[in-house]
Design brief:
219 residues, alpha+beta, Arc Repressor Mutant, subunit A, 3-stranded antiparallel beta sheet, 10 helices, 6 strands
Length: 219
């Protein structure tokens, strides 16, 4: 968990995501889709862990297309009804997570600290990874122009980034990508909801004055 300024940013991001769902009317859903969505919700609630789409298809005895419509129905209903949980999608996995705007209450219940900050270097590194994942350490440093060992270690420690495999190149360097915790922290349910960036601009996640610990000179 992070400081109160971050929670304000999370609420702002959540509003954007909610508006995107409300305005998304391209796919018409049927009552059967919402019934399937309710069944998916039950499975995810009981499992307490992310489930693979293939696993859901097998459990529900449906194909990929009906499952996608059920997921969309569940996703829309959770947002439109201002529920306290959200459907999070990361690759082929889906899971239920708490709504990011309620993070401060969850932190209070669990006794989690709310004062930690990421440095500007860590935030910059996180933005590079988020928009270019999967990415190697050398590729991160090529973008930033500085050594990123400490920043990357900090992100891994906070659970926002993880090693996901090895690149099929000389030396097989480690590949890094963002985690489900990253999505929840920034009020996103999928990587596709990351704000777009214009050509030639530097990736940025949130206004630096709201997140960066500028007193820390870490690179």
């Amino acid at each position: 968990m992070f400081d109160s300024a971050l929670f304000s940013c999370l609420s702002w991001y959540t509003c954007i995501v909610m508006e995107q769902f409300v305005l998304d009317t391209q796919t018409e859903l049927e009552p059967v889709d919402r019934q399937l969505g309710a069944a998916i919700e039950s499975l995810l609630f009981v499992s307490g862990r992310p489930l693979e789409r293939t696993e859901l298809c097998k459990l529900l005895d449906v194909g990929a297309e009906p499952l996608q419509r059920g997921l969309l129905a569940l996703e829309r209903d959770l947002v439109s009804q201002a529920r306290g949980i959200r459907l999070q999608r990361l690759g082929e996995q889906v899971q239920l997570v708490t709504a990011p705007e309620h993070a401060r209450y969850i932190a209070a219940l669990l006794g989690l600290p709310m004062t930690a900050k990421l440095t500007s270097a860590a935030m910059e590194t996180l933005a590079v990874i988020a928009y270019r994942q999967p990415i190697t350490r050398s590729q991160i440093e090529a973008v930033r122009g500085v050594n990123s060992d400490r920043a990357l270690a900090s992100l891994i420690q906070h659970g926002l980034v993880a090693e996901i495999g090895r690149a099929q190149t000389v030396g097989r360097p480690a590949l890094f990508a963002t985690t489900a915790e990253f999505l929840q922290l920034f009020g996103l349910t999928a990587l596709e909801e990351l704000p777009g960036i214009s050509s030639g601009s530097q990736p940025s996640l949130l206004p630096p004055e709201q997140l960066f610990d500028t007193t820390d000179s870490e690179e």
